Amino acid sequence: GENVEQHPSTLSVQEGDSAVIKCTYSDSASNYFPWYKQELGKRPQLIIDIRSNVGEKKDQRIAVTLNKTAKHFSLHITETQPEDSAVYFCAASRGSGNTPLVFGKGTRLSVIA
Amino acid sequence: GAVVSQHPSWVICKSGTSVKIECRSLDFQATTMFWYRQFPKQSLMLMATSNEGSKATYEQGVEKDKFLINHASLTLSTLTVTSAHPEDSSFYICSAGGGGTNYGYTFGSGTRLTVV
Lengths: 113, 116
Fold this sequence. Notes:
The complex is a heterodimer.
Chain A: E1 4-7, E2 10-14, E3 19-25, E4 32-38, E5 45-51, E6 56-59, E7 62-67, E8 72-77, E9 86-92, E10 102-103, E11 107-112
Chain B: E1 4-7, E2 10-13, E3 19-25, E4 32-38, E5 45-51, E6 57-58, E7 67-73, E8 76-81, E9 90-97, E10 106-107, E11 111-115
Parallel strand pairs in B: 2-11
Antiparallel strand pairs in B: 1-3, 3-8, 4-5, 4-9, 5-6, 7-8, 9-10, 9-11
C-alpha cells in the first residue's frame, strides 16, 4: 500500500520568512496530493491540492510542487504569519473519492512574531 | 458545498461500555466512508473503509469485532466502539467519498472519545 513520509516534524520560522514542508510517496498510482492544516481538536482543513497532471499550483501565499518522477511533493508558504502556526499534513491517494487518503506524520509549524 | 455532520463531537464513557459515532452526508450521497483515528500529536490513521450496503474493509491491526462499522444508507455511516477501554481514547473522524469537490474527501468534525 501507499506510504507517505513527511519532513520536518517541527519547523520554526520568523514571521515573514518562508516555510517549506516536503513529502514523498511510494505508490506510483497515486494521483492526488492534498495538503491539510489542522488546529487542535478540529478537522483537517484543505489548504491546497495538486493532481498528477500538474507540476505546480499556487494560491496566494501557498504553493505546492509535484515531482512525479521522484515521487515527492512540497508545500511552500511565503510571508508567514503567526496565524499560519498549526500542524500541516500531506496526503496521497489514487483519487476518485473511493480510495482513502494516506497521511504523512505531520509538521508542526511555529511562526515566531 | 459538501457537508458531513459527525456526532457526538465529544463523549466520555466508562470502561466496558459501547459508544456509537454517526456521520451523515447532508447534501450528497456518500458511497464510501473512511474512518480515521488520531491519537494526540499523531497523524490520522485509516481504520476502515466502508461502502454503502457492504461490509467494511478494515486496516491491518484494527479489530473488526471491536470497531463495528455500519453503512446502511448513502447518507449515514456509524462507528461503534464496543467494550471501550482507556486505550481507545482518541479523536475519531470520518471522511466521505462520492460527492462534493476535492475528489470527494469531505471530513466530519471529529469525535473526541475519552474512556475512563
